Amino acid sequence: MNKEEFLTQMQDVLQTEEELSFDTVLDDLVEWDSLSVMATMAFLETSFNVKTNMNDYKSMKTIGDIARKAGL
Amino acid sequence: MISFNTEQRFIVTGASSGIGEGVALLLNELGASVIAIARNEERLRAMQAKAKHPENIHIEVKDLVEDIAGLPSYVKSLKDKYGKFQGLACCAGVGSLMSLQSISLEQAKQMFDINYFSTLFLVKGFADRRVNNGKGSSIVAIASIAASIAEKGQLAYAGSKAAIVASMKAISRELAPQGVCVNTVSPSMIKTPMLGDGDSDYYKEMLIKYPFGFGEVQDAAQMIVFLLSDKSCWISGQNYILDCGTY
């Protein structure tokens, strides 16, 4: 998965109409809540085989942080 | 007084007969646009012909169990075609009787595919923030009295409907932050094609239990449309049993 594909997939994971970039601040998205974190955890595990837990997301500030966790 | 406008779009599954048809026609009568889904185009057209505003009934022929995992994408494609939705009424379902002695795994799974999984994945599609209108949007799934009180032969049906009630409760909590209401309605004996022939022994045997007689489609449709409307905006996570005090 390249970076562009990752951003498109993240739009679906977060169910957002916002255009996402690596600099998008998670807390600026109204969709970023505990359910979105659960959806993101499932996405990273299914698509990248990367296991995360709720705590990992406390230190993530941007979409780019999630991408780096995914190994992109 | 409940009223809608044509910009308020509702998806109704099972819209070609029974309670689904009643819901589609009532929503339409009260001014809403209806995306009417069922397998049989002919019967959908017959329902449309009865509508007060047939131009606001949009027919979509679809077999919901054909690709259950693809239902969220299907709902999204409907949104691209018609616009965002105000509500979803999941009325499609089957009610065949099977005894424990005779039931096969395949039959049991088929029952859950139609009644439970297709409902669940339609709801998943509707719940996407890009698909519904957000605050004030509403989901109603039709369960059954069998989810609470089941008769013999209803084991698979009752299980699939109880699963709907239980899951919708959890979903109501998940969607509450978005302001989306999620409820189930559990009808008992309503005079629909599913109920079958009025001459059967089963029909007569059951009728004795009902002091008010069996319900009409309108009785269920009125409740469902109320739950889809803005008059019920403080009601979520509930399961309303429609049995007129029988059980």
What does this protein structure show overall?
The complex is a heterodimer of chains A (72) and B (247). By secondary structure, chain A is mostly helical. Chain A has one domain (3-13, 21-70): Non-ribosomal Peptide Synthetase Peptidyl Carrier Protein, Chain A (Orthogonal Bundle), CATH 1.10.1200. Helices cover 49% and strands 0% of the residues of chain A. Chain A contains 3 helices and no strands. The model of chain A has no long low-confidence stretch (mean pLDDT 95). Chain B is of the alpha/beta class and 247 residues long. Chain B has a single domain (9-241), classed as Rossmann fold (3-Layer(aba) Sandwich). Helix content of chain B is 39%, strand content 15%. In chain B, strands 3-2-1-4-5-6-7 form a 7-stranded parallel sheet, sandwiched between helices. The relative contact order of chain B is 0.15. Chains A and B meet through loops of A and loops of B.
Major sheet attributes of chain A: none
How many domains in all of chain B? 1
CATH superfamily of chain A: ACP-like
CATH top level assignment of chain A: Mainly Alpha
> What top-tier CATH class of chain B fits best?
Alpha Beta
Quaternary state of this entry equals heterodimer
